[in-house]
Amino acid sequence: MIIGVGLDIMEIKRINKVWSKFGDRFIKRLLTPREQEYWRWRGSRIETLAGFWAAKEAVAKALGTGFVGFGFADIYISHDPSGRPVATLSGGAEALASQLGITHIWISISHSLNYAVATAIAERRTN
């Protein structure tokens, strides 16, 4: 059963502007240490950074609250062996998902030259 759906679109030049202004401070606020490693492995590409932003925003929206009671670091975006993005929750985001009975969050991330977009679907599996 679908509990929530989130969608976010981010202009890549906007993320570039914030990154240029705040540098590592912005990176450390947005990305977990493992996400930072992945981002650097991908060549520190701005479109990858914008994809992380959009994915985390979409997950927060799918949880129904936005970033209330948790932060960016409570949503970890990784990839399975086939390259599919995976959202793992911790802290306040995990507590909220548990309270709502959410058992899985499906995400999709894409980008073009100018925009990154992500969709998240929060699901409660019923037996």
Nutshell version of this structure?
With 127 residues, this protein is α+β, with helices and mostly antiparallel strands.
Strand content: 25-35%
Q: Could you tell me the radius of gyration in angstroms?
A: 14 Å
Assembly state = single chain
Shape: globular
Please identify the top-level CATH class: Alpha Beta
SS element count, helices: 5
How many angstroms does the end-to-end distance come to? 10 Å
Q: What's the pLDDT, averaged over the residues?
A: 95
For the largest sheet, list the strands in their spatial order: 1-5-4
Largest sheet descriptor: 3 strands, antiparallel
CATH superfamily: 4'-phosphopantetheinyl transferase domain
The domain count comes to 1
What is the string of SSEs from the N terminus onward? EHHHHEEHEE
Structural class: alpha+beta
CATH-assigned fold name: Ribosomal Protein L22, Chain A
Quantity of strands, as a count: 5
Task: Report what the structure shows.
- The protein is globular and about 45 Å long.
- By secondary structure, the protein is of the alpha+beta class.
- It is built from five helices and five strands.
- β4 (104-111) and β5 (115-123) form a beta hairpin.
- It has helices spanning 12-22, 24-30, 33-41, 46-62, 91-100; strands spanning 2-11, 75-79, 85-89, 104-111, 115-123.
- The longest helix is centred in the middle third of the chain and has 17 residues, at 46-62.
- A three-stranded antiparallel beta sheet has the order 1-5-4.
- The chain starts with a strand and ends with a strand.
